[in-house]
Q: What sequence folds into this?
């Protein structure tokens, strides 16, 4: 994180709000205000309970299946927790999935499906934010990733260009593609890549 928290912020929310603003200042498109607010709350919650998304936590797919079997508001809350956890993993610790039997695409798919299942109910209002997150899951996860790793543009932090390139080929992550292009790797439509 880029600032001395104790000197500049009185709450985790104010810190994460500033970090999201910083992360988005370098992006061509901004997230909507309600999505930003949701992310701030999510990051503040997980900052105090990081174990909830760690390797020793329960399998995300099992939580998703269990949540789908619930009814009413319990179902919506359980699905939202699954979506939140998948979003946190996808944004903050996606590289933890590299040596896992499932990849970050799988986690993103579960998160998107969980948020969509919450919004399937014929209500509006506060569910619109979850609908927007589901529709833009990758982009929201990238913003979270930029907050969690503000120096993420450095190939050295990701294990080098070759690792970034291989991950991009495997996962198709737009953030990795931008890092490659910024480092001088030209990606042509025929998928024959050249280092300049």
A:
């Amino acid at each position: 994180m880029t600032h001395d928290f104790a000197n500049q912020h009185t709450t985790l929310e104010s810190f994460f709000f500033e970090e999201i603003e910083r992360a988005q200042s370098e992006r061509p498109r901004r997230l909507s205000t309600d999505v930003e607010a949701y992310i701030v709350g999510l990051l503040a919650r997980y900052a105090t309970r990081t174990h909830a998304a760690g390797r020793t936590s329960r399998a995300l797919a099992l939580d998703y299946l269990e949540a789908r079997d619930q009814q009413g508001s319990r179902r919506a809350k359980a699905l939202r927790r699954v979506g939140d956890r998948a979003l946190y993993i996808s944004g903050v610790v996606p590289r933890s999935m590299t040596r896992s039997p499932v990849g970050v695409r799988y986690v993103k798919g579960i998160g998107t499906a969980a948020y969509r299942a919450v919004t399937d109910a014929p209500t509006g209002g506060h569910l619109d934010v979850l609908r927007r997150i589901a529709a833009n899951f990758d982009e929201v996860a990238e913003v979270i990733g930029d907050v969690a790793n503000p120096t993420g543009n450095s190939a050295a932090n990701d294990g080098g260009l070759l690792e970034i390139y291989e991950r991009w080929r495997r996962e198709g992550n737009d953030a990795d593609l931008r890092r490659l292009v910024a480092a001088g790797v030209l990606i042509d439509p025929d998928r024959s890549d050249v280092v300049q």
Summary: Confidence is low (pLDDT under 50) at residues 153-157. The chain has two domains: 5-150, 152-196.
